Structure prediction request, 247 residues.
Amino acid sequence: MRAFLSLCLIAVLGFAADPPATKSAPPVAKEFAPIVDDPKLPRVLIIGDSVSVAYTLEVRKNLAGIANVHRIAANGGSTRTALGEYGLVRWLKPGEKWDVIHFNEGLHDLSYRFPDDRDKNDRGEYASPANGGRPNVSVEQYEKNLRLIVARLKQTGAKLIFGSTTPVPESDTAKYVKDSELPYNAVAKKVMTEEGVTWNDLWAAVKPRQDQLQGKRNVHFMATGSAVLAKQVAEAIARELPKPASK
Prediction:
């Protein structure tokens, strides 16, 4: 429960508006705090939603002394977010060099919303297939958005790795529908194969032990689950890092 409360705080901080000038700014979550680069090491950027926020620090720990691991200072949201005014245009600063970018989009795309773009109606009901809700981003639009995102990321010259969307269980939040990640992952795999982007199957890494690693009826993970994801992400990144020059 404590892990889930911390994760909720991270998500809130990621979307919080600028505070009034008369109030002190809220503390920055450790996952979002900038790091000081070791100039001798390659630079890595993590882009993703709250699942990636939860494994960021462990990835950084796993790659200590191997790479400078940064992440976007926000919950990355959906492909709509990435392509909007608060997405890639802010996450990728001109002239900034990245050796590897590990990115993921999916959970916020498949979550249900009402036609007015809210995830709850005036009665406090979450959007679902039963009450007029529809996926935030359709599978067809998801494919188009992914191609636009990959095209922009390729401009950085970085090696690109895409992490598949993790399993969606039966959820207490109706806006998540069990197994709805499957068609999104199928489309993402197709796009990444065609675009030459490395596929990191995070779904397969946790699915066999989903009950032990993921929160009960929740798309987020317990600390043990985030550690499993972090290990796989770190290993995928390490394989794509530039090789040290021969002496």
Observations:
- The longest strand covers residues 43-47.
- DSSP finds ten helices and seven strands in the chain.
- The chain has one domain: 2-12+43-240.
